[in-house]
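Consortium newsletter contribution from the modelling node. Members have asked for a concrete example of what our holo predictions look like. Here is one, prepared for the iron/sulfur cluster complex that several groups have been discussing at recent meetings.
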Amino acid sequence: MAYIITNLCTNDGACVEVCPVACIHTTPGAPQFYIDPEVCIDCEQCEIVCPVDAIFKDVDIPAEHAASIEVNAAFFRKHKAIAGPVPFDTAWAMVHAAHDYAQIMGLAVTAAVVDEAGFPIAVGRMDKTEPRSAELALSKACTAAAFHVATAELVPEAREPWLRSLMVSHRGRILPAAGAIPIINGVTIVGAIGVAGASRPEQDVLCCRAALTVLEHGSH
Ligand code: SF4
Ligand code: SF4
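And here is the predicted structure:
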């Protein structure tokens, strides 16, 4: 199931701000916003904030708006890049970039790059890093890939029932702690980088940003 945006949408973008998995998108000049049915987790936050009641759950959509189900799906078929996961060489370069930054800052961290489904591509643990940091880095990266947002944005939601139940059901692989950022190609999430081991979460985040510079320099 997924939520659907209909042509009642006035394009004010309010729903984008509340979506925890960043699955609401549009393009310049498009008449409305659209929800990616493959990513939506049915949390209903967008429906609550929409000022014009333009959003419906697909199973409850009024007959006159039923065509919007295909309109939303078709938008993502057209605009999602056909992108594979981060190639290993790029992922490994990202791990090294995170390590290099950590070393300069006097830190010891583990960096993990995962694919869109959260499976590891490259994981590197620096000498003197706490062993448990490997699990933490992977869990953070999985979380950023699953929610399509930097995990720092999930920290304020950590006590919400919907997130707590996901943390329990995923046995530690969902970790709303700062230190992971999704890797995006167009409107497609192709993976995530997670870092753990620094004494402060902000330092883990800075290591992630250092890793992402590998992509900016065109090796992805
Ligand atoms: S129901 Fe939740 S996950 Fe789905 S589009 Fe709305 S805010 Fe996003
Ligand atoms: S909140 Fe409603 S009107 Fe605003 S962009 Fe989202 S669907 Fe459109």
